[in-house]
Design a protein that fits this description.
The chain has one helix and ten strands, in the order E-E-E-E-E-E-H-E-E-E-E. It is mainly beta and 125 residues long. It has a single domain (4-121), classed as Beta Barrel (Elongation Factor Tu (Ef-tu), domain 3). The model has no long low-confidence stretch (mean pLDDT 92).
């Protein structure tokens, strides 16, 4: 994975200090929400099909130094309460409407900070 673009900003932007994206996990298919109706005293259930839960994408990237300016820039880049465009350089024509979900807590590895960011894609057309 070379780079990603989220919220109209590339992960290659020098203000972010990102050295590399080390991992991208995109669910092949999101979890299903099965619509079943169980009747007491009857074996099995009636099947009314299923729908998909929102897709999740987890991105792991490394930041070269523990500088507060990088931490602040990454927080500003990821800070949004609404979906924004998310794409990856290995498939630039595929664009997700996503937003970060959950906590983003960097972990240290020497002079590097490792970030695991999970994005949620609420709906896909």
């Amino acid at each position: 994975m070379s780079y990603m673009i989220f919220n109209n900003k590339s992960s290659t932007d020098v203000d972010l200090g990102i050295v590399s994206i080390t991992r991208v996990d995109i669910e092949l298919l999101p979890e299903t929400k099965d619509m079943l109706l169980s009747i007491p005293g009857r074996n099995g259930a009636y099947d009314f099909g299923s729908t998909y839960e929102p897709r999740k994408i987890t991105v792991t990237f490394m930041v070269k130094q523990k500088l507060q300016s990088y931490v602040t820039a990454i927080a500003a880049w990821l800070s949004t309460t609404t979906v924004k465009t998310l794409s990856f350089s290995d498939n630039p024509s595929k664009v997700y409407m996503a937003r970060p979900t959950g906590a983003v807590i960097p972990t240290s590895m020497g002079s590097l900070l490792i970030y695991d960011v999970t994005f949620i894609v609420p709906s896909e057309v």
